[in-house]
Structures are given as structure tokens and as C-alpha cells.
Design goal:
With 144 residues, this protein is mainly β. It has two domains: 1-31, no CATH class; 36-143, Immunoglobulin-like, CATH 2.60.40. It has one helix and eleven strands. The longest helix is centred in the C-terminal third of the chain and has 4 residues, at 102-105. Mean pLDDT is 84; it is low at 1-30.
């Protein structure tokens, strides 16, 4: 039986990066290519009028990351923030978010608008108005 070239997930790396074995032996290792690009975030209409800018955490990538945002006046349910990947993924990922603040937990956040280039975080409850850009936050993990 001959060993054939493959790209299989194997183990885990620091900060949740995917580690892949490539080639015919485990001597050839590479991180997921999507972990080498960044992700950015912009506030959505639900964050109200003139909200502060959304902030992605240092080291955020299409595969995992964090973001915080605040609100302006006249907040609403719906899109609070949109995340744009720095690279197009080969398929639409499954994205799981986890609130990082109590305020985020109270607005019932969920993921919508999934695509190969990003996703949106929506709120089922309108957030409090005029909040700073660190009041609301989530971590995300994407799986292909």
C-alpha cells in the first residue's frame, strides 16, 4: 500500500488555528490558509444613528476572532455588525458566536447573512442607545 498525498486536519495549534498535514508524511505541516488573513467589522443599521466604529480583536481571521461594538441613538433590532473576511472561503462556513459581555447576552444575538465572504450579527432585542464601542461583543468560530 502506498501513502498518497493528503490534506487532513491533524491536532490543534495555538489560538485555535487549524493545523493540517500535507503531503505524504506528517513532516509537512501548514496552518489553514484562511488563518493567515484578517477580518474586519462595520456597524449595521440596528446599532442606531452615528454609532462608534466596530472593532475586531487583534489576530481575528475568517476562522476565529472577536469583535466589539457600541450604539448610537435610535437603536433597533436587526443587524448590529457585519464581519467581512479578508479572503473568500471555499464554501459557506458554519459560524458560532459567543457573547463576551453581559449587555450582549441581553440582546439575543444570532448569526445571519452567512456567505463565503462574511456574516452578520443580529439582535432580537434592541440594544441600549449611546453605548461605547466595548459594551457589546462576541467571539466567533467558523467551520468549513
Amino acid at each position: 500500500m502506498t501513502d498518497t498525498a493528503s490534506a487532513i486536519p491533524y491536532g490543534s495549534a495555538a489560538l485555535g488555528q487549524g493545523l493540517f498535514a500535507t503531503g505524504t508524511s506528517t513532516a509537512n505541516w501548514a496552518y489553514s490558509p484562511w488563518d493567515a488573513t484578517s477580518a474586519t467589522a462595520t456597524v449595521g443599521a440596528g446599532a442606531g444613528t452615528s454609532p462608534p466604529a466596530a472593532v475586531t480583536g487583534s489576530g481575528s481571521t475568517p476562522i476565529r476572532g472577536s469583535l466589539t461594538w457600541g450604539t448610537g441613538t435610535s437603536t433597533a433590532t436587526g443587524t448590529q455588525v457585519t464581519v467581512a473576511f479578508g479572503a473568500t472561503l471555499p464554501s459557506v462556513p458554519v459560524v458560532v458566536i459567543s457573547p463576551t459581555t453581559i449587555a450582549t447576552g441581553t440582546i439575543s444575538t444570532f448569526v445571519t447573512s452567512l456567505s463565503t465572504t462574511g456574516f452578520a450579527v443580529q439582535a432580537g432585542v434592541a440594544p441600549s442607545a449611546s453605548q461605547g464601542n466595548t459594551v457589546f461583543g462576541v467571539n466567533w468560530v467558523a467551520s468549513l
